[in-house]
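Here is one chain, start to finish.
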Amino acid sequence: MLTKHIVTHTYAVLYLKLDIPKKLPQHIKEEIIKRADNALKTKWGTLLAATQLQYLVDGDRYTYQGFLNDRRKKLMNLIVAQVLTGDKKYLNDIANGIWLIMEESSWIWPAHLYLQKAGLGLPDPRQTVIDLGAGQTSAYIAWAQLFVGKQLAKVSPIISQRIEFELNRRIVRPYLDDQHMPWMGFDGYEFCRWNVGNNWNAWINSNIIMTSFLSLNEPSRNDIIKRSVLSADIFTNRYPNDGGDNEGPHYWAAAGGRLIQFLSLMSSVSGNQINWSSNQLLKRTGEYIYRVHIDKDHFFNYGDTPAREIYDPSLVLQYGLIFNDNLMKQFASYLNHLRGSEGTISSRLQSGELNQIFIQLSANTKFAEITPKAPQPMESWFPDLQVITLRTKEGSAEGIFLGAKAGSNYDTQHNHNDVGSFVLYVNGLPALIDIGVGTYTIDTFSDHRYNIWNFQSQWHNTPTINGIQQQCGPQFKAQYAKYTKLENGGEFETDIAGAYPPEAQVKSWIRKWTFNRNTNTVVLTEKYVLILENKSTKLYMSYDSIQNDVEVDRHDTQDPSISGIWGQYINRVSLVTKSEALEGEFVVKFHL
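Its structure:
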């Protein structure tokens, strides 16, 4: 039955009905044609081994990826201009661009060649693996073949045959035969030491299933469908029940956002017989993105997420449509309004995303009928993720926004050491921030990751205890996290002592945020117990951290008469009274 609907309701036919020339504003059409005409005057560049090896040499991943993107962007402008005008003058250069992509040694990005047995460097012709780049290229080529395949047959019938051959060699066979590509999750391998099903899963599966619907014959398509559903199921089974994304909103766009594209594709080709609307986990996965929204292009960021970004309106809209959720539809329209509909299309053209431009065009026909509005809920509690967001006024940036997290320093390859960190915004503007992520380098996903300054806990809003920072590992996590809803706000409490190694000598460190909407205040209370420890003795010291600060100074004992008794150094623990009053009282308790 599904196969029958795939034949009669192909995704390709759905988008062909868009009547592209009528959907594009006239000045955008003119811009595309101008770019395509200019592209005809430029030469196609050559890929060099030295460029591919650059990532291994100095960590530069963007020169090579930028070259690939420029090649695809040029080709996309030629293809869209051909569709708009029907002018044969573009066909020869379109054939050149497609043939060059078929001739590329690999569609894998150099930074991801660790997936092959030969490791980083140049692609090994003896092994074909699939990464984000290969998945994107396969969908790109499938769309190109759909829109200009018949015209290219007049240039040479071999072009379509080559496309079929390369998609089978580079995508279909490794996808169906390789049981050990970690992002698929089938063998339980811990991908990059963290997740079985990370954002690659939904992203690649959505591109490959799109390729199967547009380009593959029925037997291969059916096999791809079965395998992709099993793989995507592993991904969704690892999602927390609260729908939160432990990699932050930036990677929601690559995970939950790509998952909805997968679900929409399956719904479309089944003639909407596959219905996801009763699945509350999937719905919460979509809602996450507006629940961590602050105002305009500001989102509560953690991990490798920038603080400012406008996420894909078409992906958010697909959630709204599948679950008939007006809040999601309005938020999608809000994001589209921030970008500007024409600006979104222009950015698609700039990025070379051939497949996404037609999806965006379809979304634009719906945005005109949807009121742009950000939900901006007063509170969003993610108990599995251990993340809370609170604001003064619903549907508004007015007042204070608090975002705080507990969690673990090992949940994701995009982790920062930030257990117990938080941000504060005032009237939609940042006051206390999370720096976010910089440019990815070869160190970013290596053993040197936490040498990068903005990944360290000391550059997040977390304490450094006895001179010791938080560390990364499965054991470095919050002891607990608890949210209590109050009449005029809320209270979030977590013990972050577990995020620190033993040398920090901390038994407990309880951070509590009390949010009061009536007074527009956030009170942070720190309560901790430090440890004085050697191999045989432990002494605990408790004190009131509201009244006192603690300072620890290390003094090296160079005098052998002292070091012979006390060792190579002595620590001085000082309690510094915060009050300037002439009278006062505080209690320090020492106990075993």
